[in-house]
Predict the structure.
Amino acid sequence: MTTIEQVLAERPPTVGAMFLERVAATPDGEALRYPDASENWQSLTWAQTKDDIWDIAAGLLALGLQLEERVAIASNTRLEWVLLDLAVNCAGGATTAVYPNTQGPEFAHIVSHSESHYFVAENVEQLTKLRNSAVDPAQIRAAILLDGTDEDALSLDDLRAKGRAHLAEHPSAVDDAVKATGPGTLATLIYTSGTTGMPKGVELTHGNWTYEGVAIDELDIIQHDKLQYFWLPLSHVFGKAVMMIQLRIGFASAVDGRQDRIVAGLGATRPTFMCGAPRVFEKVRNAVKANSAGGVKGKIARWAFRVGRRSHAQRLAGRQLPGLLKVQYAVADKLVFSKLKERMGGNIEFFISGSAKLSSQVQEWFYSAGIVIVEGYGSTETSAVAAVNVPTKPRFGTVGPALPGSEFRIADDGEILFRGPGVMRGYHKDPERTAEVLVDGWFHTGDIGELDADGYLRITDRKKDLMKTSGGKYVAPQKVEGTLAANIPYVSQVVAVGDGRKYVSALFTLDPTSVENWASRHGKEGLSYAELTQLPEMRASIDRFLARANAKLERWETVKRYAILDHELTVEGGGVTANMKLRRSQLADTYADVVDSLYDAEPED
């Protein structure tokens, strides 16, 4: 019997080698699906994908790309991002991932600190941002522009043409470059979005990525004949990891990074699975609950989900539902759940949630409707996936056990430590910080958690995020935020505050679609989003749901006061990271006056 140690030892040494194995195994299988200019979906086989990637990789070699030299890509997720990233790795270079909304000093820091010599811009806006930044123009040897034209930049077709000419003279150029790379060769440089200060560059190697692919393949979560809907930002580690997993397993991906097109894309492509951040699932749940809050429709929906909750124990245990419950669930599915599934294409077998903690209430709500969301866990420093639940036997409230070949340990202070082949090479040009988090082979995650008897990991909070009230009680803000977001239908984002204060308060933002639906039901059409969020009637609605949410928290965790912001927190505004994590310290400064107002006249406990 083959052991995981043997599987890991025999895995492809590099991304290029893993890609070539996939092409050889299923050359005519579908690899990538993408929308054209007319919103019609087109498809590429693995063999066609390889031909395109080889042209692009050869083009980069013709421009002078050397081993481990960085190519910065500033673009939203799209087909070209996938092709370019793989081409960079096959040519022996490393991709510097730049989130397209990164601005000012942070943008300049990433491009300069990474020493990227080549820059791929999605459009003229990204190219202009480079030219107006503090990046030394002499650092950039060539710029490639995906959309639009610029006399000083190559188009992707120009790069392909250079590649074809290079291959005509040097037919084995890309194959030789693949062979020149090894497991320890730098493949990706991703700058952690961070909640304070300039981001750190995380060095991820070819061996990190091939491990991710092989480890997930061993779990048999996804089969080669499945279709993924892929919208995750490729500028961040979760998206990159999923693409590497695809190379190993061979499923197809429908690629479209436009977040406002996710529901339409699911309906058009009818995928079998999708990965996403918790906020995507929270928004879907809140929208459904807000749309069916009243009347007969609301009563039917609430009945259906009550039936769904009663079915959990038997379904999780793999048992048949008893007679009456089986009939009731079938009716609930026909009247309510099937419509929800159809909105998502009708073929979804499961979702995978990552990047931040998923509320167990959200997870259970979807499970009631027959839709499984399994939660995974990891960070940029662990090549994204360090643990994941298996869809056939999810354990709610946990992120699953460590990936095969890796392990967790809980430190004396509750911090989660992780060891395995997915751990980064180190922070770019920062040995001191590397030494702080990598100790005796263990990566110190900065997260607090616990392991159960079966090795399933439960995350409780970020070590640095724990709040301590003036009464001496520790409060995990993520727990409070997750509970409120899961129980107040109109809420889009929640920021719990209260460190050093007598009690916990919160800042809310509201979901625009839910607010519009509320307005139409309450005769408030015509008012702006900002106006609607500040109406007393809206606060009255939220007050009712807040009381229910508080009932699910410990007394010292309950939210006594809150403020509703008249706008959502965005990446552009600096309120959240690209993975939709709250920038707590920055938000505390930005909304200091609002927070202070919540403590002007303190209520009694």
